[in-house]
């Protein structure tokens, strides 16, 4: 015959049954009011008599009732949470961006929910649906492709402030905003620096021509070069075949002399963070000397950029400020669509 061993709770004279979290029904029962009255007190959007309000507040204190964020969302129409949908967590740019969002939202008592879209449209849609179900106060989106505009618009219709970061919003709605760097200025800045270094035969490495931001950066460097009498044709543009492999097409561009009157490539501009990594990786594997053979300008300032054999010159975007501005738009609820376009910067190192 077995005997039951006392657990720690019973040995200390307390119930072995864990105390459950009090509910709105418990508050209503103790306050002797309806759950609807409790919800009105919690939301603060409807009048409740002073007597009943006092009863509810006493019951809340006595029960130590703390409504979940989702419960608040049910009562008020939205929660205090803010979502951040990141396109690809492998890009260190998003670290400072999320820090910027979090610094503003947590100061106001909110919570930031971070999700990685992994550049997968199906996964991104699943994340959007889940965040929509949480009735978030706002959502910051960094993904440039594969976003279901119907879900985004529905969230905005329901009161959420939506901020696209790194790209134009592309959706007309008073609650849908944008915070981005001036992408054409990114390309122009890269060209001006390389030109001043005496490099005019530039190859451009991009991730995809399908994204509006990268098309704008390519347009920016081409327009700036054209003003100096230089044509950066399609034969000088390399599109990544994979985000996980070196920029394999760069080798052929480096070897080609291009059209008549142009010499071989003497500089490379990588227009994205991942493009910077993959282009530099390919140059190293090809044995190209940077900057002796080819000068190199990347995009986004990686922590390791200053410590390479040829520390990288990079065009930068103010990621921390972009995060804080996006979060402030959510807090401010401006009532009309807002677009912040920030100027890029340039950090010059030995690669040029």
From TrEMBL:
Transcription among the record's keywords?
yes
What SUPFAM superfamilies does the record point to? lambda repressor-like DNA-binding domains, Periplasmic binding protein-like I
Q: Which residues form a coiled coil?
A: none
Q: Which residues form the HTH lacI-type domain?
A: 22-76
Q: Which UniProt keywords apply?
A: DNA-binding, Transcription, Transcription regulation
Keyword Transcription regulation listed: yes
Which top-level group of life is the source organism from?
Bacteria
Quote the protein name from its UniProt record: LacI family transcriptional regulator
Q: Which organism is it from?
A: Nonomuraea zeae
